């Protein structure tokens, strides 16, 4: 019998599978249904990151070709078009997913994404500049809006496909491919394919990838909505939203997982925003060498995801998150002050591998490692603590909070860096993360 929302979550809030299934990445990937979902995620995320890069190039080229100024403003508006729908529609998306067949939702989202991307193929070279930009922005809003359904549907499907003891490994794999797809799509494939193939062919390729993802999703087992008891059909959307926030407020670990994921995402977005200025002003490298710091952080994240997947199942989730948050704060403070101190001791400008650059590389990798220790177990907590009838809305609540918090680095990180200096702002972020981790550690021990 399906549990009602008012029932307490048994053993972490989800239907526990028999404890006989082997854990580990090999065992998770041997699950063919999970494997197809994982491949669909890897392909769709890589396609999305490739499109993100292609659109930035296209908007800049369009503004430059028409001889108009304001390219940076046009790019900022493009980013806002992607960032705004998650704040407005994530919570509603969770309600829709909980009421629907998750497989159908994911397949429809991928098909709609492909349709949105195909719209860029219609742009004519003689369109007026304003018409072209408004058209691009409208497609971006549509693409981002329909995409809000995918995350809750995917996240709430994973626990339905894998046994409880494999859930941490499954989330580690999804985090691994998410980070890998960002590097592959935005840093590697986007720049290469737009030059070699051209924007038109890149759009066609991405549409094809979304069609492949649609086929992979349709091959999954059906995931119909859970029965929710008498009167469920008469419930309003507002009732569903109240229910999920009440549910989160009554579960300390669930709330903690959402808060920690939000802090991790917004904190590291601010770091990414300020990184170019830090590299130029402190490490004395050109901003074109951003990869010197970004690549080790990405590799550290990948290594951390693998490590958490292998050993995290034997560790207490809450303790792992608390200590990873403390480590992230310490490492960020060390990244700022050690790099600055070494630069003052031996101010060599423009050299690729000075002691301060080497220190920054090592500490950036450590930051990526610590970030994995926050993200993977926090995502697993969200899935474990919320039972199937409410899981998509819980995940949507996180997406709403996280995307709202992400506006802070997008809008204010650069301004704060200009006002107070990049070193002071990064140090303040590190101190805030460290204080949050130490406070959480103290509260956990007291609890």
Please tell me the overall pLDDT. Answer: 80
Oligomer: single chain
By secondary-structure content and strand pairing, the structural class works out as mainly alpha
Q: What is the N-to-C order of secondary-structure elements (H for helix, E for strand)?
A: HHHHHHHHHHHHHHH
**Radius of gyration, CA atoms, in whole angstroms:** 22 Å
Shape: globular
Unreliable parts: 1-21
The description of the largest β-sheet is: none
Structure notes:
With 447 residues, the protein is mainly α. The protein has 15 helices and no strands. The chain starts with 24 loop residues before the first helix and ends with a helix.
Topology record:
Elements: H1 25-29, H2 32-65, H3 71-98, H4 102-118, H5 129-147, H6 150-161, H7 167-196, H8 199-218, H9 237-249, H10 252-281, H11 291-311, H12 317-345, H13 355-385, H14 391-420, H15 422-446
Helix pairs in contact: 2-3, 2-7, 2-8, 3-5, 3-14, 4-5, 4-6, 4-8, 6-14, 7-11, 7-13, 10-13, 10-14, 10-15, 11-13, 12-13, 12-15, 14-15
Keywords:
15 helices; 447 residues; disordered N terminus; mainly alpha
Short account of what is shown:
The chain has helices spanning 25-29, 32-65, 71-98, 102-118, 129-147, 150-161, 167-196, 199-218, 237-249, 252-281, 291-311, 317-345, 355-385, 391-420, 422-446. The protein is mostly helical.
